[in-house]
Specification:
Radius of gyration: 17 Å
Largest sheet: 2 strands, parallel
Strand content: 15-25%
Distance between the termini: 27 Å
Order of helices and strands: HHHHEHEHEEHH
Mean pLDDT: 90
Low-confidence stretches: none
Length: 153
């Protein structure tokens, strides 16, 4: 899912979801509109609304939902919390934690350290295109040098 969401502004929520639909791999059940609406209730409430009229947080949820409709093996997220209100970030984090609990693999590129450390198992800290740290989240948070250099603003 790209950083800039790329929802189809003139299509409804339901139509945006349909654009992303692909069957599950190996006969597995893929995501359906109903499952998306259960997972993101606000999208169910807005299923007939055009994508371009949704709030930023709703567009972010729609972009993730449209990606899930493709039944991905790995969900790639680029800055999913960027530009969202704190309450929306919490909702999004809860939904992504639920996906992770279901076994969905998530690869996350994120500058919001609190968001990333709540969701991730492992971290790679990049600086000017180079990996400066790699390890578990617990190791990252326990390393005082890494915390001082990269995590404290």
């Amino acid at each position: 899912m790209p950083e800039d969401r790329r929802v189809f502004a003139d299509l409804t929520v339901a139509e945006n979801l349909e654009v992303g639909r692909r069957p599950g791999r190996g006969g597995a059940a893929g995501w359906t509109h109903e499952r998306v609406y259960e997972f993101f209730p606000v999208l169910g409430e807005r299923r007939s609304q055009r994508g371009g009229t949704l709030s930023g947080g709703e567009q972010q949820m729609l972009a993730i939902a449209r990606t899930l409709m493709g039944s991905p093996e790995v969900l790639l997220l680029d800055e999913p919390s960027e530009g969202l209100a704190p309450v929306v970030v919490r909702t999004l984090l809860d939904r992504l934690l639920a996906l992770r609990a279901e076994g969905q693999t998530i690869l996350l590129s994120e500058q919001n350290v609190r968001f990333a450390t709540r969701l991730a198992d492992r971290a790679y800290v990049l600086e000017q295109g180079h990996v400066r740290y790699e390890g578990t989240i617990a190791e990252l948070l326990a390393d005082e040098q890494v915390r001082q250099a990269y995590l404290l603003a």
